[in-house]
Amino acid sequence: MPDKTSRRPGSVRVTVADAERRRGVSRRLIVHIGVYVLASILAAAAVVVGVRLIGATAADQADAAESALDPRTLALPAGTTGAVPGSTRLELLGPVTLLDSRRAGGRPLAPGASAPLKLPALPAGASALLLEVSLTAATGPGAVTIDTQAGQVTALRVPAARAQRSATIVVGVGSDGEALARTGGGGHLLVNLVGAFQPVEEATSGRIVVVPPTQVLRLVPDTDGKDATIDLSRVPAVRKAGTIGAALLHISADVGRRGGFVALGDSAKKLDQRVFWMATSGADRTREGFLVVPVTDGKVSLHYQAGELLTANLVGYVTGEGAASQVAGLVVPVKPGAGEPVPVVAGKQTDVTVIPPAGIDGVPADRVTAVLLAVSASSDGPARLAVFPPDSKPPADPVLNTAAGPERQTLTPVRTVAGAVRVTSATGASVSLVPQAVILTG
């Protein structure tokens, strides 16, 4: 609305006789009074109309809230709170086996072959899936990809025949609800569905909370046996959270020359989630894995079939039904991308921007508190690669143990500071960091 002080009267000058001037003054006075009266009437009408419009907007918003408005239709300016475009909660659905080629006749998939994933009924409006993908008994080197109407995501790469690897990934899903797994080098393919991301404006359960890495298990099979139970109720971060729906676990394993696996679940009789590792040699024996493990009583059971040592760190959790209803912790899956390799100088700390200042996929940068980050790296020699918030110390356990040769990959949740994370490596390394989802502030 224009500032009233900036309005200036016209400068037209008229010369009249004295009588006419007096009559003109009277007429102008009457006209001015009439104008003021009319202006008052119009202003009152504008107020009434404005009130009616505001009332209609409030009613529309109430109706929209009752009809579960998809937050992807909302566009909020930076610096605001509340839902942002694409905000979701993680509804835990499994693990549900979508594909296991070992069961389908026992034959591995041929190089370049694909197989459809039999998805169950998904939550209304589901925009993405959380999958566990493993390839065992590889017949040759190559990548495993998941294709949907929303795009293609590379789940993992195996470097050679007889290799085996696992990965947890976020992959968008289209309105057709279909997905296809493809293996470039061939082998047995296993795909589990852990959950689906359902559009919401706020939620109790299904929000992801990232915590500083906290070691919750150190298992030495020679003295402790191969089975263990992780009691999450002993972890301070979990005690404060109340009930949780799932634990985000980063696992490091001394694998050994035969390779192996770790199997996890919410009970010793239901170890449905696995991470497979290929054989190692020499001093380069440690491999990693990341899993989102649904829990029912705050405990995780596991069986370790590999080398001499396994450690597990809690790096986050998914809130349960008893949590408060909030925006903080909602997740926005982002479009798949190919990160540019970043050189990391040996022994130097390198800050890498993973959330541009302009934001990502419609999410303002200042609304991002953490990311689910796909990390791929190779290095000049054996090295412990750490990825952590720039305002924190490096964690005791690395995100990846890297070496010269083919890249190694993992997914990790990490808190960001001004859109950046910090990377360190004992030797020179080439690192690619690609957000698969962002986690919102409140």
What do you see in this structure?
The protein is mainly beta. It folds into three domains: 88-198, Sandwich (Jelly Rolls); 202-326, Jelly Rolls (Sandwich), CATH 2.60.120; 334-441, Jelly Rolls (Sandwich), CATH 2.60.120. It contains three helices and 25 strands. It has helices at 18-66, 221-224, 236-241; strands at residues 88-100, 114-117, 128-136, 142-148, 151-158, 165-172, 179-183, 188-199, 208-219, 227-231, 244-254, 260-265, 273-277, 286-294, 299-305, 309-319, 331-333, 342-344, 350-353, 368-379, 383-388, 400-402, 408-415, 420-424, 429-440. It is globular. Keywords: Membrane, Transmembrane, Transmembrane helix.
**Helix-strand sequence:** HEEEEEEEEEHEHEEEEEEEEEEEEEEE
CATH class of the largest domain: Mainly Beta
Number of strands: 25
Known CATH architecture of the largest domain: Sandwich
Tally of separate helices: 3
- What is the CATH topology descriptor of the largest domain? Jelly Rolls
- Which stretches are poorly predicted, pLDDT < 50 over at least 5 residues? 1-79
The largest sheet, given as strand count, sense and whether it forms a barrel, is: 5 strands, antiparallel
Question: Radius of gyration from the CA trace?
Answer: 30 Å
- Mean pLDDT metric: 83
Structural class by SSE content: mainly beta
- Shape by Cα distribution: globular
**Portion in strands:** 35-45%
- Give the fraction of residues assigned to helices: 10-25%
How many angstroms does the end-to-end distance come to? 34 Å
Q: Domains counted in the coordinates: how many?
A: 3
Keywords: Membrane, Transmembrane, Transmembrane helix
